[in-house]
Each structure stands twice: as structure tokens, then as C-alpha cells.
């Protein structure tokens, strides 16, 4: 086994930068292979992104941020969208993609997943409170990375389903699991795929942390203990921030530094809460500590629809056909009310910002990780339960982009945004539809 087979995520990225720097200092001398290894890990130098314009024309364009455009055209150049409309001038020499009879829309965004994280890396077993951990450190990029061969990175399974951007995070066996990140599903190297290395602090209320703790005969044993331990951690972080401000020479604590950023609203708190009790606790914690709150799971969120809408707290729901987002093999019935396939539509109608995500993760021996490949198809089920088609598409594109704080880059087809575009052979909400083409930053990264 070579070193490239065991390197992962940020470790590989740091090594790549180091060896590249060493090779650059004395190329051909003491480090004759450094430049080659650095190029392999970071990606060899490439020409400016997408020098040649690409025009997708003739299809039904769904900008998401506006009405559908029959016989529309989307023009991409330099990794960005440069034109969208019915009467668009196509640059000379552009590559023309015939989309007649097809649909064109922005790439799907999976706002909650653990794809790319090994099952043994999804939770930290040693401690139920680990705010200093960053999921990106254990992320194993896709494609040829680590295989000993240079080449672009591709998550083919997700790209085949139109998913171009995702939010991987720690799983839910700890009450404070650590920090999630945002990445694209294709790129020439790891850095090019990364959108935001620290995007939110992930927490969990309910059965999963209790089950993990009880197996090791430690707290939190109860829901009361979960909330108390989170409060204690946040109060400790407040004290740490004050003490460090008064005396910068005090030793650093990475966990308290991360919680300090949370308390300063530099990143949101994503709290997985499904039962009414847990959602109420999450709302109270957010109010007490002035947190920027996102509710993950939210199975009982309709009971709090007015408060969620008034306080502008978004909800990231699990997939409509299987909303049990816990990593427990058999979710505790106390965590979930009876399944209501109308939930996404009802929350949206009540004014709650609502996204649908895969929460893809392994479910022990009973089932493999839910594939984000079917996120768009599964989300379309909500349309059959009263959610407007336009709202369904927003729930997997523009809404998750807004919740993740990246709507200035992705989530809709608008001039100046990243050229993350998918072409489908039929209506996006049809079970018969397939993604024919997927572009990330203007590059064709999947073709059926």
C-alpha cells in the first residue's frame, strides 16, 4: 500500500502543500519527487477554468429564482453563468448543447449528508462533546484521489442524480459533534471542491446521544442531561472567550474557540431535533445564547410552525419517503411523531424556510447509506402530497443554498453564479426522468 492510499482529507492537503513548497525551493536537488507528489495531491496546474463558452439551448429552462423559460438558453463561461433567457446572444465559437425537449436547472444541493466520511469517522466515541472536531479532516474525496493516479475528482453516484453541492457533517451519536463543511461533488483537486471548510456546528438532541452514552455508562442518560451538557459547554465557552480577551497568553482550546464563533454568530448551530420536546429545547437554547439556529430532522416541526416562521428558523427535513434521519438502526418512536408526507408542503405554506435533504448515512446492518442520488426523485413525492412543484424544486436547490449561506453562488440559474447546471431528459419531478448532463463550475462532469 502506498502513502497515497492512506492519506485522506485535510491531512493530504497539508502534505501536498508542504511537499510542493519543498520541491519548489530546490527542484531537482534534495527533493526530486516533491513537485510531482504535490501536483498529484493538489492537482496539476490547469488552464483557466472553462476558457470556451458553453451554450445549452432549446430546452425548458427552470431558473428556480424566476418563471420557467420555454425554448431558453443558458450560457456558461469561466466557470460562471453569463447569460440566461429566451433571446440570448451566443458567443462566437461557443460549444452548443442541444436541449430541445429537455429541462435545464441548477444543480441539486444536499443540505445534510455523511457521504465521503467513513462509518468509523462519523462519530467521536471518546467524548459526547467535541466542538473542536471538523468533518473535513476525515473527508475522503472521490474519484482517483488516493488511487496513485492523478486525475479529476468525481462523485459519480451523486452527480448522476444531479447533486452538485453537499453539506457533510459529523453524525448524531454525540450532543455536540463538531463542524460540518460545504463542498462541490467534482473538481480538479480537493481545494477546488471545497466551498466552505467550516460551515456550521452540528448538535443532536434525542435518542442517538443517549443510546451511545448509555452503552458506555456515562452521561447524557436523559434528555435533561443533553440540554444541561450543551448549556454547560456554551457557558464554559463564554468564560473562555472573556478570559482570552483579557489575557491572550492563556492556552488555546480549539473546542471553546469553535463554540466562541458559534456564540458570536459567525456560524449557525444545526441542532438535530425531531420530537416536540427536543425542538422546544433547541428553540430555548437558541434564545438563551442568541444562536443562529437551523433545525435538522424536524419531524414534529409543524407544532412550532408559527414560532419557526416568526423567528426565521429554517428546517432541513429528511427525505419524504423515509424521514427517519437518526443513525440508529431502529429509530426510537419517542423521537418521531407519525409520518406525515405533507410536512414539507405544510411548513412551506406556513412561512417556514424548508429544505429537503438526504441525511445519507449508514444504518448499521439493516441498510446501506441512503443515496443522495435519489434526492430529487424522493423530494418530488412531496408534490403528490400538496406541495407546489416550484416549492419542491426550491427545497432541493435555492432554499438549501440560502440555509447554507451560499445562495450568492449556487441554487439558481442567474448571471454571475457558479455554472452548476444539470440537463434532464424530462420533467424533474417525473419518476421516468434521468439526469443526462451535469456541469460543475462550467465543466461537464457527468454524462449519461
Attribute tags:
eight-stranded mixed sheet; TIM Barrel; 29% helix; 3 domains; 448 residues; 18 strands; alpha/beta; single chain
Q: How does this structure look, described?
A:
Helices cover 29% and strands 22% of the residues. With 448 residues, it is α/β, with parallel strands linked by helices. The chain folds into 3 domains: 3-42; 47-105 and 412-448, Roll (Urease, subunit C, domain 1); 108-410, TIM Barrel, CATH 3.20.20. Helix 7 crosses helix 8 (254-263). The longest helix is centred in the middle third of the chain and has 24 residues, at 223-246. Mean pLDDT is 84; it is low at 1-48.
Number of domains: 3
What's the CATH H-level homologous superfamily of the largest domain? Metal-dependent hydrolases
Low-confidence stretches: 1-48
**Straight-line distance between termini:** 33 Å
Number of helices: 15
Number of DSSP E strands: 18
Helical percentage: 25-40%
- CATH third-tier fold name of the largest domain: TIM Barrel
Overall shape: it is globular
